[in-house]
Amino acid sequence: MNILFIGGDKRSRAAYEKLKNDGFNVSSYGLFSGDTGSYENADFIVLPVPSTKDKINVFSPFSEKEIPLKTVTEKIQDKFVISCGLTVGENCTDILKLDDYCLKNAVPTAEGAISYVIENTPFTLWKSKVLIIGNGRVAKVLISRLLSFGCHLTVSARKPLDFALLDTQNIEFINTNTVPYNAGNFDIIFNTVDAHIFKNPSSLKNAMLIDLSSKGCIDFERAKMIGINAVKLPGIPGKTAPHTSGIILYETIKQIINSKCEKDLGESI
Known about the structure:
By secondary structure, this protein is α/β, with parallel strands linked by helices.
């Protein structure tokens, strides 16, 4: 079984080493200095997390050269591709569409965000008024972690089922539509939803906004101009917990490969 890693950061390196220790034949291109892994003998191609940041080149911070996505697309032929946030060819699994990967990856995201707040505020999380916007995977991990800090926690959601679940946990909740009108009542706000919620940044007043969404919930340049404390934290897992994130990536890659091999074996019988 030949696995080729193309590009990647510390997470990919950790996954690479784990697969190698498991006995897989692993090579790389653009992951280590001077590596020259070849497409020709690869059965599986693993793209990084994220696979691309500019939609032009593969994300490859350790590579001396750029790796154009077009080149990868031309060379994959009949290879099976494992990607992140990108679909390449017909035989491709995007791990961002896998619930188990996203749920595990929510842990380093949430813990990294909390760490940032602790290091960048002059007050404790204990007794702070905290709002989490959204009730998805990252939000649920944030809830479990923040409750242990003794915060005055509120969660925003839109679905009646979410309201009911939060109620059973004895967690305060508000409708996400009302967030702009209530934002000034909180010390810290974690946003986890892809929606432009704060059309008027001044509604945040003295709150600190931590945006964990992909697209962002506010115009950050405008917010900065009027003195709003808002920060976007992309790619937290790879920055604050690359080893753990790499293990999560390794487990996901191995699961995909084993599943594909079992499927192929079943079809050949």
